Amino acid sequence: MAAFDATARRGLLLVSPTFVYVLLLLAAPLATVFAFSFWTQDFLSIDYTVTLKNYQEAFSDPIYRTLLGRSLLIAGAVTTVTVILAFPIAYFVSFHVAPERKALWIFLITIPFWTSYLLRVFLWKVILGFNGVLNSSLIGVGLIDEPITLILYNANAVVITLAHAFAPFTILPIYVALERVDRSLLEAAQDLGETRVSTFFRVTLPLAMPGVIAAVLIVFIPTIGDYVTPRLVGGPDGLMIANMIQTQFLKLNNAPMGATLAVLSMCAVTLVSLVFLMLNRRYLKTS
Amino acid sequence: MIGLTNVEKYYGDYHALRGITANIPEGEFFSLLGPSGCGKTTLLRAIAGFEHLSGGSLTIDGQDMSRIAPHRRPTNMVFQSYAIFPHLSVAENVGFGLRKRKDINRDARQRMVDEALDMVGLSGYGSRRAHALSGGQRQRVALARALILKPKVLLLDEPLSALDKKMREQMQAELRRLQRQIGITFVLVTHDQEEALIMSDRIAVMFDGQIAQMDAPQTLYRRPSTRRVAEFIGVMNFLPAARVGDEMFDVAGLGKAFIDRSQVMNGAGTDCVAGLRPETLSILFDGSDVPDHSFEGTITDRAYYGDMTYYDVVITPGTAPVTISMKNRAGRPILEPNTKATVAWDPRSLIIFGA
Amino acid sequence: MKGGWLRIYAIVYLIFLYLPVALLPIFAFNDGTIIAFPLQGFTAKWFLELAAIQALHSALWNSLFIALVTATLSTLLAIGAARASTRYKFPGKAPIMGAIMLPLVLPEIIVAVALLVVLLQLGIGLTSWTVIAGHTLICTPFAIAILSSSFQGLDASVEEAAIDLGETRWGAFRTITLPLVAPGIISAFLIAFTISLDEFIIAFFLTGAEPTLPVYLWSQLRFPTRIPAVMALGTLLLLASLIILSIAEYARRRGIARTGGKDSGGFL
Ligand SMILES: Nc1ncnc2c1ncn2[C@@H]1O[C@H](COP(=O)(O)OP(=O)(O)O)[C@@H](O)[C@H]1O
Ligand SMILES: [Mg+2]
Questions:
Q1: Within 6 Å (CB) of ligand 1, which residues are found?
Q2: Which residues form the ABC transporter domain (chain B) (predicted)?
């Protein structure tokens, strides 16, 4: 038992600075936010009586519901679009690119993301705008006469921009999962009479699911908390809950309401993620 | 030299070593042999100091080791994975342990490294990068790196298991030669019984964290103390037997015979089991005399190995066959299944175990 | 041809990925204040203008300082945590590591408001150090992820061999483990540095009187006349990122070459 204690002590000692840091700068603040959500703002000071008033307001005022609902919807759409667009690329690099060139492809895929995030979002505004790159090129080519307005200052623009922003974060986990698929399993499936298409759906895809699931969570969770993209390209119909949280904290100076919305979004994210994981638990068990 | 007394080791609830007691004298080539997971590595690492004992004591050269850190023990280890430092050259690997020694200057160190490399047949490889070596060469570097520190005990954890068959046989001979030459104690862990038999002065056979038998190779092979040891080392046929007199046993299919006390293992009661090695049985070919002890049987199967042929022979229809190995000699035919055969056996090579 | 359609799709997808990035240098050298086609002709004046904006310089230095301190802190914290998680068993390991990695799956705005609330409650003023505190929190899990795979790839018996040959535990770590995971440490440091440099949401909430570069950029995006200069700045930042990335990749390759491992995939 002495050995166990010695290594345990050494491990705890090594991890403790990081853990203490997280306790002080994450756990304690999150607990504070949670507490705040039960307090109220009384002009410049905080009223510390515990009440559910904020939650009542959050559920009754349609604007909060709309924003939270829209955030979940947009995040869901962004996730779906991003993963569906990214999967073929991951598949292509893993299965159709020569091994010695795979690193190059991954490199090519990640390079655009070393540009400032803000600028990338802004550039999408430039591309999608009324006089933007897309419209002016399409008019120039003669495909359209009038600029398309469907693609800026609405939810579509948010989806396109975020699908772009999260591209490498989806491609990489799916690619890693596909790389782990034992190629002889695919040959075995075909040897047992599956076609290439049915092999994909019955063997490749299920085995790659852990990567897909990781990709989904990697996109979905931060998307809820994004407020740059909605602000820059979303227009009034594209605003999301994070914009409201920011407004409550920084503009309206109503931290308790902001805290309540933060807690509610966290709950929503956790709930959706857990349901998603539950639905896919059979794919995660084997590994 | 190495004294192990009632050594116990727990991993949480798992009882990995159960009361190991053994004395390994100076200069002995000692092997720990047993199936995977029986605790060989754990015991070796306990001697090296990488595992704390949960109970019992360990002494080396009469000195208690419980408070001695691994880097201060007079032991050195050749790891199963060789654990060559990948970022250092061969010479830097071999000289690694000498850097701590203030009494050895650069020149002396260089000379010692050269000598050590020479000893393992790697002269001129000093400047090579460690990762550019073959398995056998890594093995030699690991050996030189440990031996250069002149340990009292060299510990080797399955050092040859990663090598191909030819290389392994060559290294077995070389390790044996090296051990004789420098005369220190070697403790070798292996799951390969043949390797243990070839190399060791003495072998401890381990099962489930315990030593089942500790003896010289011949004794171990010819007088295994339990059926399990007998089965683990080589091949043995088991036949039901009964004690019918003081030293008289009746073996199923073979008949009665006098068996010397030395061949009767502890725990053999009235009902017991007789063990016979395949090479102690021999099929009589036409023209040879029928000796005192023989039986008739039917060949049911045969496996041709080039130098040897293994036959399965059923004595009484409906019972399990016995395996017989025959050397393939000039003029000796390879018998086909379904032929009858007369088989000679010798009571002196038979062992009686408890049922 | 095998994967023919997929290859076409991949190329179209790459164009999609590079579209915004490609515009960056185009507009940076475009002689017009409006960011739209058709282009107006070539100029380098936006780059010269950059040199004159004082606020930009201080934002840049501020960001570099924050990124440097953040990267150092998170790498140090990550070395301990990654080693503890890959080498040792200790009670409460799963929840402890879970808590440390939590910022990876927490929307950044939550981290930002949580820290802001506490700082305001405690009456601590917002400075570069508050940004560093927030950035260290989100960069550490990334650094841990990178370092864990470095520590994992290390044969545990290599360190034991050093101890066996007479090194102390610390000596073995210093002479054997550290050099072998050095490429991982460099990668972790550079990743943390880059994340911090580019991070906007937390910085926006926690920055004090001195904005970071992204916060400054955000404020400039509202002024159309400033946009071309911002494009020029973006171009320079991209170049800087690519140089950092190349260094990281070089360090990784060298690490692999030195230990004779197989090159398994690219950076990250
Ligand atoms: N660090 C450890 N923690 C828990 N169990 C262990 C540890 N090391 C070894 N064991 C267990 O102890 C038993 C003996 O292991 P080992 O000594 O490595 O066997 P072997 O004879 O194959 O070398 C095995 O069942 C193994 O699973
Ligand atoms: Mg072992």
A1: B 11, 14, 16, 34, 36-42
A2: 2-233
Q: Which domain covers residue B78, as residue numbers? A: 2-227
* Contact by Cβ (8 Å): A64, A54: no
ipTM: 0.86
For residues B24 and B4, give the distance between their C-alpha atoms in angstroms, rounded to a whole number.
Answer: 8
Interface of A with B in 5-24 (CB under 8 A): 6
CATH number at residue B260: 2.40.50.140
Q: Name all domains of chain A by residue range, CATH numbers in brackets.
A: 54-286 (1.10.3720.10)
Q: Model pTM?
A: 0.84
C57 inside 8 A of chain A by CB: no
Residues B246 and B158 in one domain: no
Residue A2 confidence (pLDDT): 46
pLDDT for res C263: 47
Collapse the DSSP code of B258 into the 3-class scheme (helix H, G, I; strand E, B; otherwise coil) and give the result. Answer: strand
Indicate the residue type of B75: T
Report whether pLDDT(B123) > 80: yes
Is residue A50 predicted with pLDDT exceeding 80?
yes
Neighbouring CB atoms inside 10 A of C169's CB total 15
pLDDT value of residue C260: 58
Look at residue C265 and tell me whether its pLDDT is greater than 50: no
Q: How far apart are CA A235 and CA A217, in angstroms?
A: 26
Cα C225 to its chain centre, rounded Å, is 30
Residue A99 pLDDT grade (very low, low, confident, very high; cuts 50, 70, 90): confident
- CATH class in words for C53-259: mainly alpha
All partners of chain C with 3 or more CB pairs under 8 angstroms: A, B
My answer on whether B168 and B316 are in the same domain is no
pLDDT in tens, A106-127: 888 988 888 888 888 988 888 8
* DSSP symbols for B11-53: ETTEEEEEEEEEEE-TT-EEEEE--TTSSHHHHHHHHHTSS--
| Average pLDDT of the segment spanning B201-206 | 97
Q: Once rounded to an integer, what is the mean pLDDT over residues B81-104?
A: 89
Mean pLDDT along residues C112-133: 91
What would the two tokens of residue C148 be?
A: 């864990």
Cα B192 to ligand 2 centroid, rounded to whole Å? 12
Instruction: Look up tokens 């240098």; give the residue.
Output: C25
Structure tokens at A144: 């359209």
Mean pLDDT, rounded, for B275-283: 94
The candidate with the shortest Cα–Cα distance to B240, out of B252, B229, B248, B231, is B252
For residues B92 and B191, membership in a common domain is answered with yes
- Quick one: pLDDT at residue C2? 54
Ligand 1 pocket test, candidate residues B11, B18, B190, most atoms within 8 A of CB: B11
Neighbours of A211 (CB within 10 A): 25
Question: Are B106 and B123 contained in the same domain?
Answer: yes
Would you state the structure tokens that stand for residue B181, as one six-digit string? 């030459």
CA dihedral for A164, C61, A227, C195, sign (positive or negative): positive
Residue type, B316: T
The pLDDT value recorded for residue A188 is 86
